[in-house]
Amino acid sequence: MKMADSNVKKLATTLIDAVRDKDPLVQEQLCNSLCYLGESKPEETLDACDEYLRQHEKLAYPYRVIILKAMETIVKNNIDELDRCTAKIVIILASNEMTKSKELILDWQQAASSVLVAVGKRFINKVMEEVLTKFQPGILPHYFVMQTFANLSITNVFGMVPFLNSILTTMLPMLNLARQDQMKSVFCFALQHFSDSILEYLANLDQAPDPTVRKDTFSAEIFSAYDVLFNHWLQSREAKLRLAVVEALGPMSHLLPSEKLEEQLPRLIPGIIALYKKHAETFYVSKSLGQILEASVNMGSRTLEVQVDTLLAALHPQICAPVDSLNPLVIKNHNEVLRCFTILACSFPDRLLAFLLPKLENSNERIRVGTLHIMRQVINSASAQMEIKKPFILSSMKFPLLDTNNKVKRAVVQVISAMAHHGYLEQPGGEMMIEYILRQCALPPEPVPKKHFPETEDFLASDSVRTISINTLYLISTTVDRMNDVLWPYLLEFLIPVQFTNALTPLCKSLMHLAMKRQEEGENSFLIQYDSNVNLPSPFALTTRLLIVSSHPYLGEGRGAASLRLLNVLHLNIHPLLGQRWKKTIPPLVNYLEEHNEETLSQKEWEEKLLMFLRDTLMIVSDNTWICQLSLEMCKQLNCYNGTPLEKNFLYKCIGTTLGATSNKEIVRKHLQELLETARYQEEAEREGLACGFGICAISHLDDTLMKLEDFVKSDIFRKSVGIFNIFKTLYFDTMTALMDLLTSLLLRNLTPQGLQNMFEHLTPWIKSPKGHERERALGLSAYLLRYFLEHLNVIAIVPFHNLGLLIGIFSPRCADSLSSLRHDALDCVYSLLYIQLFYEGFAQDYQDEVAEKLLSLKDSLSDPDVTVLFHTCYSIAQIIGKRLPPDQFISLLLTTFEGLKDPDVNCARAATVVINCLLKERGAVLLEKVPEIVGLIHGKLCEVKDEHVAKAIQQSVYLLASQHRAAVVASLLASPLPFDSHTCSLWRALATEPTLTSQVLELLLDKMNKDVPFTENKSFLLSSSYDRVATVIPLAATCALYEIMSAPESGAAVLGLYPELFVTLLLRVSCTVGVQLPRNLQAKERKGANPRLAPRNLEPCSCAVETLQAMLFRGGSGEVITCMGLDGGWELMKTSEGHEEGVTLLARAMAKHSGPKLPLIVKTLIPVLSSVYEIQRITTTAYFAELLRSNVVNDLILLESLLDNTMGRQKDVCTNVRRLVLRGLANIATGSPDKVRKHGPQLLTAMINGLDDKDDPHNLVALEAMLGLSRLLDLAEEWDVRSILLHITIRIRPFFDNEQDEFRSSSINLFGHLNKFSHGNCEDVFFEQIINGLVSLLLHLQDPKPPVVSACKFALRMCGPNMECEELIALFEKQLQDGRGLHFGEFMNNTSKYLMQNFPDTLGRLVSTNLFYFKSCWEDIRAAAPMFIGFLVLHADKVACEQVDLNQLILALQLLLKDPAPTVRIKAAETLGRLVKFA
Q1: Whole-model pTM above 0.85?
Q2: What is the DSSP string of 289-335?
Q3: Alpha-carbon distance 561 to 546, whole Å?
């Protein structure tokens, strides 16, 4: 027993020692643990607290407070079991703690006092015996002695009241000794509670120990105290003291002798009332005043009546004062004052009303609102006294009803609501109140103000008045049965007037409820008697109004549905034939509205549905008189909708529909005439509605409608004006003849090729003029001059016609001029030029060239309107030119024709492309040396032309050139500046036109990429030790070129033919450009911003390579691969160093799924790369192969053995990542080819074990992959193969359970779970030890910050369960540790600990020791979980098992944990210390 006591003391002392913790939550837990300790061992714990406080006199009072609070809780919870000896110790300690300091230290002394009060619930005599020793006559007691008396009197009424007489006797003389306000206040506090206690005792005499106690037992002492409090202390300047006095006087007044109270009232009531002026906080004054009034009324005071006026005058301003809803005491004061008015109303109703009713005439807002609040209170709480006053009260409301202030309105509505419940509205004048409510319901809804206005401000939105009015209307019409006869059918009067439009929805709802009640009472009760209710709207007025407001159904909080529902209920009062029909037609209309909203409703469809409903109704009624009356009512209501044009528009349509249904033509004509005369034609909606109405009516009454319209048109005056216009003509004079004479004379002076060129230098701008007449003159002159030159040419010697190419280049495109009349002149020019060349070559003047003469046969084709024929003719002209053009003139002709591409005449520009492409095709073989120049020229012209056809034809020129000089063209284009502009890109795409050429170009580009190094390594800056990888230009340009070519649809066949080579080259290009920078000159270009001529592509090397790979896949028919990668984010991953492996993995996965047949050639092409000098290429290839092994497609394609052998061959690679990926690939066989695992099992498992033991991997990444791989392979391997390595693996992976990296923790724990499957047989005992060794880790890591680790722990524990052979644990783990299920960790650990101790009690010591290791964990939640685990283990362990635990060591460890920086950890340590009571 002494040992147990010693342990309790040790635990309690440890907890108490820690109360100096600064964190309030830790302090709270320490207190709770101390209390928990006290639950089991209350006496020992209280003794330890007592001893600690006595031995640590200098312990600061905030910490003493914590200990005292714990003691209070222990006493409260164990009061029935507490022995007298311990109670005595606690009482003496608490008494000393409470009175140790003469100065007031509230928290400390209050805590001690609370302990005494707690003990006093059972040991009141012991407590009083101790405390009374410190309450001696003639000596002022300690402040908390009186406070303790006061609180004891409330908590133990029956035990304390017998002491009160002697306490009062001793206390009364002390009142005069008290000088300090604090002391006076506590005396007041005591007297207040003593009085309350006595009153409660007297109210429960049947249960009291002494039923002979009477009020007069205490009256004399209470009156003596009253004399001091009221006559002396109430006059104090200290506000707190005055309030304390007031609080005491209230309950004391009930104990005063009746004659004394009667005698004191003339002074008491004014004295209390006077405090209203001295205190801003008036709740205590009002409460006390109410108690005094109750006491006075209860004893039948005769002098109270004299005080009524004074009371009313004092109380009324309290109600009129603004109420701050955020201040509870203000709200309480308001309620206490209203209680005072209730007392006065019950005793002096006439005096009260005489005071209140005139106040309603006061226009001051606060006075009126306050008075209305009192009226509502009086109506509700003094209904019997007010019964005969109802007419007066109703008549007094006329002034408030006129008030426009929103606060007053709100108060009026609340009063009317009270009146409705107490029969006021059945009196004459009650209808006026109902109308008032309806007027407030009809207020326009206002938007909620952005700024928040507290109710203390003088603001109240009218919308709040409207809201409360709507609620009140619905309340009194649905819950106050006596109001049914008042409201029905009176409320119908408010449906028609426009001013009540905003009230329609609540009005319809209330009427519908009332109508349904009437229907339940019978038909006679429901039918409206119009003779006795002359103000009620007619059935026609009701129908019209409810139908028209339904046209815009979502206005006014959905008045459409409410109106239609009411119309349906009123069917019997509308027409007796409509009931059954409307039951079928109206509900679908309401449902239609409920299925839509303001945004989705088609207004046109909705109006058509309503008009269909109206037509159907008129057809059912089939009563011409009824229909005429309805149309008359509709016309009457037209002016009501002047403010709502859209509803008026619909009303016109309803009128037209109704008139269409009547056979009374006179009525039709009369109404149509009225409509035409009264319509407001300036309103568009009204004009449109009137027209629709007439149109609907005309369907049935065409002649009458037309006649009225004709008469109306005749009355209108239209004025029309017609404009005049003049046409001016311009004169044209021809001067061509004179111009020809001038130019021929000039040419004749220099009849040489140079002279001819000089002449055409002047004419060329006119030949290319955008103005047709200028071109016409120029070409006519040109043809004339060339013929003249030819006729007058006299060649003496053979000389070159050096400008032939230039001149033909000017005229040949004009053979397609948009003015067909000019084409013959252009052809004549070419014809003449060819013959001039022939003459210069030495041919005779009469020589006719067979080739040149073919030009004349093409003239007719030039006039063909079909442009296809025209350009085909131009091609033929170009062929003729090509045959007769000297080689030295070829370039000159090309260059000049290229200039023609800019011709303003689009036809000529297109013809120039025809000529160029024909010449390139026919004679391009001679242009090898000129290829760069021509490519540059083509690019330049592409930049200048605007016509799309011309641009495409120019791009075709590159193709024609490349078909003869592909290497030169590719080299020239690769030399283009990077990034390629849009025109260069279009030239690359032009090379995709023909599959054979495209394949050759692709091979050239692949060769460029493969032969050059992908990057160079340069120092970041001069003194840097690190190197940046910078992309080389040619491979980068080739990558961009490949993209452009493969983006052309025509390249598809070529891409398919080179699919493996393209794929592998681009995949390796991607891998080699990860993290590679652009050359600095290109970086500068990137930073300058977007050039509109540049193609919108990213030049960043890796992004560029990825985009090109995507283009290749798309063009090669693997679009699904691109989509799949995009959805998984694979493309973005491939571009980053961190995500490249995963990106390649996703690519391989997508290829296996969507492009399997292409894999054999890809694999064959990739295998040599496994030995690449570039590490990144080996990584990429291994990652690709690893993922392929995950797919079963490698079996179908007979690739498994090849992939497996080549992958295994890299196990010794110097690169850690390659070795890691090898293991991943081998593990993937479990997924891709599970049936092959047994065959290769030893090989695979050996590789994994080697990976676990990899010594050249400082970061254990290979080991991690090995663990992941083993988890996948184990289930598929031969059991014997696994068992032979089981223990080795278990021991090797155990250190990873607590690795800082969550991947290691989750994978090792997950693998441990899988290993459990192989532990049976001769491994059972050994593996059980491993489970016990790892069990704490697995359980604690359920609190791991990383979800994957938690998931792994859940799995491992579920796997461990069967091997532990404990049914309870198996069931618990299976139920609580399912993935996706939330876990209440504390409850789970409690149950786990219970089952462990029930089934494996011998493991307690090991489990506790392992938990102690985790006290130093780097994870806060695990440090907190470890002591909690220990606490639960100890809680469920038996005494024998607890002997395994070194309590001293455990307490020392927990003491250290109590100093942990994390409050949550300290809290759990404190909690566990409490649980160690088991050792006691």
Answers
A1: no
A2: HHHHHHHHHHTT-SSHHHHHHHHHHHHHHHHHSPP-TT-HHHHHHHH
A3: 10
